[in-house]
Amino acid sequence: MEIVVASGKGGTGKTFVASNLCVYLKRNLSEEVVAVDADVEAPDLLMALGGSTREVVREEFYGSYIPAIDMSICFNCGRCAEACEFDAIHMAPEGPVIDYSKCEGLGTCAVVCSVKAITLIEDKTGDIYASETPFGITVVTGDLELGKGNSGRLVYELKERAYRIASEKRVEFRVVDAAPGIGCPVVSSIAGSDLLITVVEPTPQSLKGSLRLLEVAETLGIKTVAIINKYNLNPGFTAEVEKKLGVEVLGYVPYDDAVVKAYTSAVPLLEYSPASKASEALVKCFDRFREGWFR
Ligand code: SF4
Ligand code: SF4
């Protein structure tokens, strides 16, 4: 079963919920859990789960193509520079020069070159790695190199890798900590999942982000439930959030200093402070999910 934790806006407690859900599942329902950190531009799930005790996978990720020019064939006609819509090629006295920071890698230049001096080669855009953590959860994550695109495809690859690890080890649960927002990496995070948990704060911005996320989930046909985080910071608006979301709310988690202390100690709250108010509220949310899903 793949459960995605997402929010239409960053900073709502998505990683907090995802990391503690992993701990809960491991304690109550499964000997092992595989987690995916799909926030490839700022991954922090591994840290929230205590960091790596052993790296089990490290691979380079080639997510796009770039053109390479064979200068022994090129005869400086300039057609490639004229055809490039992104202004990524300029003609120098010694021949065409590519500005890779502007290049989109679709290969128009290669198509128009009459002597086939340009070929597209794979470009390394990041890394994929998987690590075991002190709490017995394997985390699959990736790092997108600065300025490189195609994070949606990287997320797809991370989920595939997690699926393979879970199948090999016969692990029932995979938890995906999605990227913030509703862009391409979020769509990749959600696609094919069994359940989406949206984490919402009682603020208009967070509600708006979650409503947009729910539209995406509905289009993809994915069942969605919600957890309202820090509900006591704006109790009046919490009722409105629940009404407007129109999905089952698993529960309400209060603001709690213990959450910050657990995060800075790199220990999931359920382990760091099981008797804290936020811990107890989270367990109630997860119990409700468990009862609803497995009844
Ligand atoms: S189109 Fe081909 S031959 Fe002409 S400048 Fe570009 S690489 Fe050289
Ligand atoms: S691949 Fe496209 S964007 Fe890149 S240099 Fe060639 S034509 Fe320009």
Which segments are poorly predicted (pLDDT under 50) over 5 or more consecutive residues? none
Structural class: alpha/beta
Which architecture name of the largest domain does CATH use? 3-Layer(aba) Sandwich
What is the straight-line distance between the termini?
A: 15 Å
From the spread of the alpha carbons, the general shape counts as elongated
Rg is: 23 Å
CATH topology heading of the largest domain: Rossmann fold
- The level of helicity is 25-40%
Main beta-sheet strand count, sense and barrel state: 9 strands, mixed
Average pLDDT rating: 92
Bound molecules: iron/sulfur cluster
List the helices and strands and how they pair.
Blueprint: E1 2-6, H1 14-28, E2 33-37, H2 45-48, E3 54-69, H3 79-83, E4 89-92, E5 95-98, H4 108-112, E6 118-132, E7 137-144, H5 151-169, E8 173-177, H6 184-190, E9 195-200, H7 204-219, E10 224-229, H8 235-245, E11 248-253, H9 257-264, H10 269-272, H11 277-294
Parallel strand pairs: 1-8, 1-9, 2-7, 2-8, 9-10, 10-11
Antiparallel strand pairs: 3-6, 4-5, 6-7
Helix pairs in contact: 5-6, 7-8
Descriptive overview:
The protein is α/β, with parallel strands linked by helices and about 300 residues long. It has two domains: about 210 residues, 3-Layer(aba) Sandwich (Rossmann fold); about 60 residues, Alpha-Beta Plaits, CATH 3.30.70. About 40% of the residues lie in helices and about 25% in strands. A nine-stranded mixed β-sheet has the order 3-6-7-2-8-1-9-10-11, sandwiched between helices. It has a two-stranded antiparallel sheet with strand order 4-5. A hairpin with a 2-residue loop joins β4 and β5. α7 runs parallel beside α8. The radius of gyration is 23 Å and the shape is elongated. The relative contact order is 0.20. The model has no long low-confidence stretch (mean pLDDT about 90). Bound molecules: iron/sulfur cluster (SF4) (2 copies). The site of one iron/sulfur cluster (SF4) has 13 residues, from α3.
